[in-house]
Every structure is written in C-alpha cells, then in structure tokens.
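Hi, here's the filled form for the chain we discussed.

Project: internal
Contact: R.S.
Residues: 555
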Amino acid sequence: MKNIWLSATLFILCAVPVLAQTAEELINDGRNTENVTTLSMGYDRKSYSPLKQIDRSNVKRLVPIWSSSLMNDLGELSAPVIYNGVMYVMNVKWTFAFDVETGQQIWRTPVELESGQLQGSVKVTRGAPAIYNGKLFRVTLDNHVAALDMKTGKSLWNQKFADMKEGFYANSAPIIANGVLISGVSGGEFNSRGFLDGWDPDTGKKLWRRYTVPAPGEPGSETWPKDTDAWMYGGGPTWRSGSYDPQLDLVYWGTGNAEPYDPRPREGLDSLFTNSVLALRPKTGEIVCYYQYTPNDVYDIDAVDEQVLADIQINGQLRKVMIQTDKNGFLYVLDRTNCKLIAAHPYVKVNWATHIDLATGRPVLSDVYKRFAAGEEVEIWPQRGTNAVPAAFSPTTGLIYASTWNLSRAERLAPPAPRVFGKMQTGVTGGKTTPLQPGEALGHFLAINPLTGEKKWEVPLTDMPSSAGMLATGGGLIFTGKLTGEFVALDQDTGQTLWQFKTSSSVNATAITYTHKGRQFVTILSGTGGIWSTRYAAGKVPSGGSVWTFALAQE
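And the returned structure, exactly as it came back:
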C-alpha cells in the first residue's frame, strides 16, 4: 500500500507540479518556509515560526512591500495561505489569488450567496483557506462548503450543509485531516444544534456528521433533561477551526455555548457536549475523548477557541498537551492523549468561578450563578477572555501570547418562551458592558506561562481592546494589531512595542510570516469587522478590507 501511495503521489506531482499539495506537505508546514499551507502555520495551531531574519535588532527597518484591496467592508478576520509563490486570501465576499512577490491579482472568485435574510450578526469569515491536491476549500456564510481550482479559481464542487431558516450560518474555515475535509457551523443563539461534517475533498461527498448535542440514548444524553426536546435546540456551535495531531490521528475541535443561556429548560444539567473540546477520528467523526470547560454554561462563554498542541516537560516527563485560552477567562492545559486536565489558571478577571478543581476538572462556582438563577441581574467577569482570535505559543519561551479583554457584562433571566428553530432566543436580557473609568484598561497584550499561570508581562490597552491574533517568531518578536489600525511588533520578553505601522483600517486578523527567494516577509489583513470590534471601532476607524505585506528595507 505504501508503494501504491508513493506512486500515486509522484504521478500527481508530475502532472501538476505547481498545485499538488500532499498530506505530507500539510503535516510538515513550516519546514519549507516558502509555503504556508495550514491555518496558524501548522496543524498544532501554535501560530509560531522559527524564522529570524527579522528580529528585535532590525524590525524598525520593516516597510510595506505591497498592499491590495480585498473589495469588502464587512471585516477581515482571516489569514492567508501560500503555495509555490501564490497567496490565497478569503473573506465573506471573495476568494483571491495574488502573486506573493508583487501583489498582482491572479484571479478572484465572488461568493454567490443564497437570496434571503442571512442569520447572525457576525457576517465575517474566520480562519484560513484549506488547500489540498490542487483545490482550495472554504465555507460560505449561507452554509455551503466549496472547492475551487487553485489555478483558475473556478468552482469544482459546492455542497449545502444547513438551512439559514433553521438558524444556521457559517463563518469558520474547514481543515484537511488524514485526507478528510472537516467543517463546522455557527448559530448557537438561534435554537440550532451544532455539528461537524466530514467530506471527501475530491468529490464533495459527505462522509459523516457528528452532532455536538447527543440525541436521546446516545452517550452524553444523560446530561440533558429526559422526555423533552431540549437537545434539539441545544446549541454547541463549532464556529472556530480545529487542530490536528497526525501521530495520534486526532482532530481537536471546540464547541460553543449551550442554548438557551437560561438553565431552566436544560434543568441546570451539564449539557454535553457544549462548551467542550472534542477529540475525533477524522475518518469517521468518532469521539475518542472530550473535556467540558464550562458545564451548564449560562454566560455565553464558548469554548470554541483553538487548541494549541505542544509537547512540554511536566515534572520531568515530556507530555503531549493541548492549551486553550478559553473565553470563560481560564487558561487550560490538557493531556491531548486522553483529554484529562493538567492545569487551569485565570488569565483575566473572573468572578463566575473561584477556581478550577484539578481533581474533578470542574469549575468551583461563586455566588454569581445562584443570584442569576434566582432572577437577579448579575455582573459577569469576563464578558469574554479573548474576542475569538488565535493565541500564539513559542517553544523557545514556553509562553502563551494572547490579546485579552478586560470587560464585564450584565445579565438577567428573561420570561420563559417556547423554543422556535431559527429564532434568536437566549433566554436572558441585558448584555450591556459595565462602564469603566477613563484611562482604565479595556484589554491587554499578555505573555503567560500556561502551566503556572504566571504572567511574564501584560501591556494595557486603554483606547480600545484588541481583536487581533498573535504570531510568535524565532526573531524574538510577537506580531499583533489594534482596532485603531496599527500592525505592531512586540518584544517577546518585555511586551515593548518595537515597531508599528498604521494600516488603512482595524487589524482583527492574524499575521503569517514566510520567505520568498530567501527574504523573510510578514503579511496581515486589515479591515474593521465583527460585532464586538465594530462596536468599538465603527465611527472612529474607516472600514474597507486590504492585505499588507512587509519586509526589511534593503540596505
């Protein structure tokens, strides 16, 4: 079989040498620094590159090389991928191919959405295009997964996987794992039931569907009320992209909030597999293990953020772990072979729980839940630990780098109402942000030890919080951005801003770095978008999407 696979691969490489991405190239993303073939610059989602041509001593010489419009005013939250001198970029309206050296457009393909009212207030595209065997894969807001020809941008296949009328929409990116295309879905506030789909990337045939809320009789169904249809409206959306360990052959995917936030229809039960990480076999969608970060979530503190995969020393033993900066305010370290908890520490202000019990793996609740369940309006910290953007992990420092939010919100139970598919019903009122004093930090750039919770540094953001992802490099730099439009390079050891450049709109995306003809480049998308970042930046920062590429000025 191995010889047959090698022969087939050689045939593909000979037939279309420019466009044949193999499974091996996806697994080894980063070894050939001319290419960036996966989201977060690797299946492990570290958002780390060992490249060090651009470093702390010379980053002040970083200058823009080219920029191009992305013809979109709804926001740029995605990251590009690069293969053989071509950069591929996507947003909610378009998919582009650019010459990586000049920025010249090679092709662009519009996203043709179904007519009718789109669900959701977050009309953006997250993640990065998936590429494999000459095809580019993406999802569209109206619940389609599509394959495009990487050479021409022409559609090869397009499959609808959910109905907007039933409360579903899609703004994440699919991934390829062990030859299977895996995609998620949004819509947790619209009485939907979350799921993941596995697809044949060659034909678009659906291979499996894994619901995140079990049906009666399935494992986990005991955590939902008996003899009710609460599970049918249970939430658990999968609106961020997963990570993958090829050695264990496990995909790790986070799930979102239980629906409704009001715990009464769910009888205050744990509501599996919402607010969890699922470890799945990519070929079948089988759940191998799971961990629930927030049982019985009543605060909309999803667990959809990426699982960062790393091998780290713990008590003298090298452990395979996954790390998540959860929206609930705690930073978790889990054993990724069995989904067992190793460590958990707050990385922002938290008042809904006092700590995470390492013996049980469960949060120890404060009095906030009792007061909320009794009908009192409560102030919840955090509103969100991060705004659903990638963190970075540096194997050199052993630290997690994240952009965090220092904001609360108020929430009160609403009168019970019948559940209706496709109708936004959270079961609560409020959601307003508690005002802060002038000059008080709205968020931070943070460096933190995931095992101990010790903060190496924390840089306050007093104008607006950040909704940008983080990129760590071997040059000792952390690249990130601000809602006010600055693309910045921080010192990994101190958090000091060493360089910044004002782009044309907000920076809400995550940077990538790579080489072309031996020269290191850094690319970032700019464009205000997303409900929370727009809430702070709209009216203060112009909209309009663009892609920016930087390199050191030639001496």
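Let me know if anything looks off before we file it.
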